[in-house]
Amino acid sequence: MRTAADVARLWVFLVLLAILLPLTGAGQQAASRPLTFQQIEDLVSLGVPDLTVHDEIGARGLAFVPDLALLASLRTKGAGPMTLADITALIPKVSGRQITGGRHWTLVLEVQVQDAIKTAADRMIDDLKTQMRDWHMDWTSVDRNDPQTVAEAANIQIKVSGIATSGRHDFEQRVGAALGDWMVARAGEGLYRLSLRPEVFHRLRQSAVDGVVETLRRRVVALGLKEAEIRRDDSERSCCNLACLFPPVSDPARVKEMLFTVGVFRLLKVKEGPFPSREELLRTHDGILPLGTRLAQQVSGSGHGWYLLEREAVVTTRDLRDARPATAGNGTWLVTCWFNDKGANNLAHFAQASYGDRLAIVFDGTVLGVQKLEPGIFERFEIRGFEQERAAADFALVLRSGELPASTRALRATVGYQ
Predict the structure, then answer these.
(1) Which of 2, 305, 404, 412 could form a disulfide with 6 if both were Cys (CB 3.0 to 4.6 A apart)?
(2) Helices 198-222 and 113-134, packing angle to 10 deg
(3) Does the pLDDT of residue 98 top 50, yes or no?
(4) 320 pairs with which residues across the strands?
C-alpha cells in the first residue's frame, strides 16, 4: 500500500518528466534548426509584420520571445531596420546550442490588383469624357469609387451625373455600344453607374498578376539572382498571391525595394509651378483643378514644391528602349534613357509645339526633377541628381525591367536553412 510520501515522490517524478521531455526530445528538434540572428534581421528588414516575426522567433526554440511592443520600439528606433546589435541584445543565445544556419528565404506577396482595376477605370473615365464631348453631350461630373483592398476590387464603379433628359437614351445606347467592357445602369435622375463586367474583371486581374510575375523576374535576374523563383502561390486558394523564393543574398533590403517599387515613369509637361503648397496652387484656380491636368509634388533633388502638370504624358515607361547609369562628372550620377521611335517622335513633337517649356520627371507619382529638352536631341534623355552610384544603378534597373501593373505588399516571410 502506497504511503503519502510515495505519492508525493511520484508527483515529483511526473513533474520532472514533463519538464525534461521537451528539453531532450522536442527541444532538441527545435534546437537542431534554430533561427539565426541574421535570419531574424532579414525578416525585419524585409518589412514583415511584427506579429509574424514574433511567431517565427517563438517557433524556433529560442530562449526568449520578445513581446510585440518591444519589437515595434526596436523597429522605429533610428532611421533604419532593426540592427544585429539590437537583436543580439534582445534574444540571448540559448545555453549549449550552436546557432548556425543558412539564409535562404521565402516572401509571400499579395498583388494589389485593385491598382490595375482603378487604372482601367481611370482610362475609361478619360475615354468617356472624350466620347461625350464628341457626342456634344452635357454632363456635370464623372468620377469613381476607390476600392482599397483586393476583395473590394470587383466592386469598382464609375458614376456619371448631370445627363440631361433629352440625352439619356442617346447616352445609354452609345455608351453600351462604344464601351462594351462596362455595364450601364440608371441610378437616379440624370445619374448613371457603370460597373465592370465580371469576365472583364477576371481578365484584368489575371493580366495584372501575370504582369507582376514577369516584371519581378526581370528585376531579380538583373540583380544577379538567377536561382530565385517567383511564381503564383496556390496554397491559400488566392489568385493574387505570389511566392518569391530566394537564395542567400547579402542585401535583402535591396531585393525588397525591387519587389515593392512600382516603377511608373512619366515625362509630363509643366503647366505651372512650383508652389509652396497644394492649397496655394489650387487657390490660383479657385480651388478647381483645370481639365486635363494633375498635381504632383517634388520632395527631393534640386527643388521642392507642387506642380500643375498636363495629365497626358509625353513619354511613359513603355516608350523606353534602355536606361543606364553614368557619372555626371561633379561627384553625382545620372541615368541616360533611350527611347523607341514612338518616344522619340513624341519628344520631337513636344519640342516643336512647346518650345522652351519644361518637362517634369515623375516617378511613382512624385516629381524627381524639372528640366528642359536638349535642342535637337530626342532619342535620349538624361535624369540627373543621383548622389550615389547605387541609387542611379537601381533606378536604371527598374526602368529597364518595366513598371508593375499593380503594387505588391508582403503577407509573410520565412527563412530556410543550409
Answers:
(1) 2
(2) 120
(3) no
(4) 339
As a whole-number percent, the residues of the chain with pLDDT over 90 amount to 43
- Helix H or strand E segment including 84: helix 84-90
CA angle 76, 82, 88 (to 5 degrees): 130
Pairwise CA distance, residues 236 & 194, whole Å? 32
CA distance 309 to 29: 61
CA–CA separation, 164 vs 181, rounded Å?
A: 24
| Three state DSSP letters for 304-366 | CEEEEEECCCCEEHHHEEEEEEEECCCCCEEEEEEECHHHHHHHHHHHHHCCCCCEEEEECCE
20/265 Cα distance (integer angstroms): 61
Reading phi first (left if > 0) and then psi (alpha if -120 to 50, else beta), residue 112 is in beta
The helix/strand/coil state of 384 is strand
CA–CA distance, 296 with 40 (Å, rounded to integer): 38
- Tell whether the model's pLDDT for residue 329 goes beyond 90: no
Closest CA to 92 of 66, 56, 53, 59: 66
CA distances in angstroms from 183 to 116, 139, 343, listed in the order given: 19, 19, 34
Higher-confidence position of 243 and 403: 403
* Rg of the chain in Å (alpha carbons): 28
Neighbouring C-beta atoms of residue 329, cutoff 10 Å:
8
Strand-pair category, 366-371 with 293-298: parallel
Distance between CA atoms of residues 333 and 401, nearest Å: 20
Grid cell at residue 216: 519581378
SS (H, E, C) 146-210: CCCCCCCHHHCEEEEECCCHHHHHHHHHHHHHHCCCEEEEEEECCEEEEEECHHHHHHHHHHHHH
Least trusted range by pLDDT, from 99-108, 241-250, 302-311, 363-372: 99-108
* Residue in this structure with the C-alpha cell 509584420, named with its chain if needed: 49
Taken in order 252, 253, 254, 257, is the CA torsion positive or negative? positive
